[in-house]
Amino acid sequence: MNVHPITTPASPSLESPIFDASFDSIESLTTTFVLPVVPTLETTTVTEVAIGYHRNQQYSITAMTTSTGAVAERYAYTAYGQPTILDASGSAIGNQQSQIANRFTYTDREWDETLGLLHFRARWISPLAGRFLGRDPIEYDDGDNLYRVNITLSSLDPEGMAELDADPTSSDGLQWCWHTYDPRNNRGLSVHGELEYWRYNVECKCVCCSTGFCDGDTKRTPRCRVIVRLSVKINKRSAWDKKDVYGHEQIHADNFLKSAKQAQDLATRGEGESGCTDPAECEKNADKIANDAQNILNQRVLDDASPKCMYPRDGTKYQPRHPMPTDPQPECRSPSEVKPFPDWGCLYMPSKK
Length: 353
Known about the structure:
- It contains two helices and 13 strands.
- It folds into two domains: 115 residues, no CATH class; 186 residues, no CATH class.
- With 353 residues, it is α+β, with helices and mostly antiparallel strands.
- Strand 1 and strand 2 form a beta hairpin.
């Protein structure tokens, strides 16, 4: 997804408040706000250890506070993450080194002040160049540029390698085919068509946390992808116009793809929460992530098959949300094949249960 990053001013304005922020304490999780810098406020010398992280909607750290709520340090960023470190009053610190040894900055990633680079786990970013320094580990699967920095507010990607392999990605261009059904199914309902779930599954594998030779002791972290393949079957015996059938199934498709996105977000959070562990622990984490994400997809299929839960209701006609392809598929089949799981050097494959 190509989304322009939000530009944060190089230094905060005294007329503008710091972004509303969430307070994340080592000891507890609660919610508070960082108040705007007002010229008439007196600054307080912070003598306590800063434990509160405050972030904006980009998850970039904008301030740190002590256990009493006093601001210890503030931060501002350029479009691609070059931090400006500020004291409690909002003035730039001369040597631009955190006085409280904080390394978490832009989008909550680690800032290496010696290298002048941001560590995004899978790769490093140069804020000055506005580019990743290494090639995208999943190559062209998520775009046509191997070094471009895309910061999005709509999803989380703790590992920098999350993937939703869906075809189609929306009901726009949803392929269809002619099929012959009995006029009524085993529930006595009219069969006009159906959304065909050719494939919907979650795959997780463990990858080495370090480069080079991957032996049995090297720590690993889960890497997951959600795979979805959908198309529409339209009953030749249906009394409905084919466009009404297609429009009805488009709604099912969009609902399922929303669930696929939820599964992707859950898997991505699981990747970040698992971190780097020994191979056995990684395998256990990978299995749990895959099962939890798969349950989201399975539940959506069950809901769409239930007359009590499904939307749209059986027998409801809808005009297509997007233009219907003029020609049907020559045969009812998956719209595309699934590529092999990418190889990042050494992959530790979780065992089959």
